[in-house]
Design brief:
It is a single chain. By secondary structure, this protein is α/β, with parallel strands linked by helices. It has two domains: about 1-80 and about 155-220, 3-Layer(aba) Sandwich (Rossmann fold); about 90-155, no CATH class. Helices cover about 40% and strands about 25% of the residues. The protein has helices at about 40-45, 70-75, 95-105, 110-125, 140-150, 170-185, 200-205, 220-225, 230-235, 240-255; strands at about 1-10, 15-25, 30-35, 55-60, 65, 80-85, 160, 190-195, 205-210, 215-220. A hairpin with a 2-residue loop joins strand 4 and strand 5. Helix 3 (about 95-105) crosses helix 4 and helix 5 (about 140-150) runs parallel beside helix 6 (about 170-185). The longest helix has 17 residues, at about 170-185. The protein is globular and about 55 Å long. The structure holds adenosine-5'-triphosphate. Adenosine-5'-triphosphate binds near residues 34, 37 and 41. Adenosine-5'-triphosphate binds near residues 16, 40 and 42. This is Phospholipid/cholesterol/gamma-HCH transport system ATP-binding protein.
């Protein structure tokens, strides 16, 4: 679980996060949504320990990050997995080498132990024959699965995904969403996903935090989002005619 209390961040006197309080539950897919420039990336970088907030606290399973020693902060960061926008695989490494990279960097495991773990996570993301392929030789969806395998290879307690569906067709995007949700539940991970994808909001939005101009303007579940009359949320989520119709049908069905 990650608990965020009154988080504030400014750059050159301009406040970008204006006092965010929320929490992200274990075993759930937690989504951060909001318009471009609303502060999603800065928020996620604070959660990753890459940006130091000016005020407020972030508490990871009971441990307040700013109160930890540098060594404890380093240990905590090793409990975090990250799926970057665009996958961010090393082009010159094979799939297996990409996935093994964190184990090689941060553990003292033997080659065979690391290989076993790589086999296990690649199998978990349904990539059994891709070990020796290079990123350029596999599809975007497969690259994303490699990125997920690499993010979970260290058995993280926290998983952060930045726009995990960018560049994928809608069908593949749903497969990736479902895979992230399954893994989150299976390993009881606290997963936080930064997304623009309304399909993800509807499919896997177990907790949604909506940011607007650096504030938390709304939070709730994908079921709540159908019912809310918060204008900022409805303007954002239902900017598409299709989603307006889906919402209308949902509300009619309930009445
Ligand atoms: N290092 C920085 N220095 C100064 N300003 C920054 C820095 N990082 C972000 N900002 C500003 O903070 C605001 C929020 O940016 P952020 O990248 O978090 O938005 P976002 O919601 O992730 O947008 P997008 O959806 O387009 O990625 C923007 O006005 C941006 O210019």
């Amino acid at each position: 679980m990650i608990e965020v209390d009154n988080l504030k961040k400014s750059f050159s006197g301009v406040e970008v996060l204006k006092g965010i309080t929320t929490c992200f539950d274990k075993g759930k897919t937690n989504l951060i949504i909001g318009q471009s420039g609303s502060g999603k990336t800065v928020f996620m970088k604070c959660l990753l320990g890459l940006i130091t907030p000016n005020e407020g606290t972030i508490c990871y399973n009971g441990k307040v990050y700013s109160e930890l020693s540098p060594a404890e902060q380093r240990d905590l960061r090793q409990e975090m997995g990250m799926v970057f926008q665009g996958s961010a695989l090393f082009d010159s490494m094979t799939v297996a080498q990409n996935v093994m990279f964190p184990l090689d960097m941060f553990t003292k495991q033997s080659q065979s132990e690391m290989m076993d773990r790589v086999d296990f996570v690649l199998e978990r993301v349904n990539l059994i024959d891709a070990h020796n392929k290079y990123p350029a030789e596999i599809s975007g969806g497969m690259q994303k699965r490699v990125a997920i395998a690499r993010a979970i290879v260290m058995n993280p307690k926290y998983l952060f995904c930045d726009e995990p569906n960018s560049g994928l067709d809608p069908k593949t995007a749903i497969l990736i969403d479902n895979l992230i949700q399954e893994i989150t539940r299976e390993y009881d991970i606290t997963t936080v996903i930064n997304t623009h994808d309304m399909n993800s909001v509807m499919e896997i939005g177990e907790k949604i935090v909506f940011l607007k101009d650096g504030y938390k303007a709304w939070e709730g579940t994908n079921k709540d989002i159908f019912k809310t009359d918060n204008e900022a949320v409805t303007n954002f989520v239902y900017s598409s005619e299709l989603f307006k119709k889906v919402r209308q049908m949902y509300l009619e069905e309930r009445n």
